[in-house]
Amino acid sequence: MTVRVFCPHADCGQRYRVDETQLGASTVCKRCGREFTVSASAAPASAA
After folding, report:
1. Which pTM does this prediction carry?
2. Is the distance from CB of 11 to CB of 32 less than 8 angstroms?
3. Regarding beta strands 26-28 and 2-6, do their DSSP bridges make them parallel or antiparallel, or are they unpaired?
4. Whole-number Å distance between alpha carbons of 21 and 11
5. Largest separation between any pair of C-alpha atoms in the chain
6. Using CB atoms within 10 A of its CB, is residue 12 exposed (0-12), middle (13-18) or buried (19+)?
7. Per-residue model confidence as pLDDT tens digits over 1-38
8. What residues have CB less than 8 Å from 1, skipping those under 6 apart?
């Protein structure tokens, strides 16, 4: 299942859709270049 995540840095907020198996992993935001831990927002992304 795909989930929505976002960069938690206040001046960025870039949104991504990732597989739920990636939750808890560390990654680098492609927009701001800073590291963050992948965590889900409130709802899963719809499968379009």
Report:
1. 0.71
2. yes
3. unpaired
4. 27
5. 29
6. middle
7. 899 999 999 999 999 999 999 999 999 999 999 999 99
8. 19, 20, 44, 47
Please give the C-alpha separations between residue 3 and each of 13, 34, 42, in angstroms, as whole numbers: 15, 20, 9
Q: Which two tokens stand for residue 48?
A: 């379009």
Residue linked to tokens 């001046």: 11
Determine the Cα angle at 16 with ends 14 and 19, to 5°. 155
Cα dist from 2 to 32, 34, 39, 43, whole Å: 23, 23, 12, 10
Q: What is the DSSP string of the chain?
A: -EEEEE---TTT--EEEEEGGGTT-EEE-TTT--EEE----SSBPP--
